[in-house]
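User: Please predict structures.

Assistant: First:
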Amino acid sequence: MPMSADDIATLIRQAIPDAQVEITDLAGDGDHYAARVVAPSFAGMSRVAQTRAVYAALGGRMGGELHALQLTTAVS
């Protein structure tokens, strides 16, 4: 069963409370999303570390409930 954009945003915000999260459904199918995650707590982290933090927030759902996620991260 696909994940909703709200579910994705909630998981990210629970793990990264200071994050501003924008989710876009790229294909209208609930399986292909783009996410922009901006958080002050990303300061000092490499882009790879930021990406890992977001994927960790999703708790292993990538490739299962969540088929594809185009991810952009930034420090606010």
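Second:
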Amino acid sequence: MFDFQDLFQWDRFITPTIIKTFYWLVIAVIVLFGISGILWSLTAMAISPFVGFIQLLASIASVFVGIVFSRIIAEFILIVFRINEHLGAIRDRDAGMH
């Protein structure tokens, strides 16, 4: 975890430690919007069953797509920080050789 002082110092990145929390918050928002879309599609089925069914399928599909894309974005952010760490290790190793 990180200390409160880490917010005011630039020696260490805090994003890798809190990215999982943001990921789960995004998942919760996606699921809530998915449930809202499913309920909306069920009420639309009373007016037009075909349109409501299409909306239901779209809502379910958008939940799955949203979860996959949010995972990809979270992993991309972590990869960028890992690349930074590896480049720093390479720089330190090369500085020690000279």
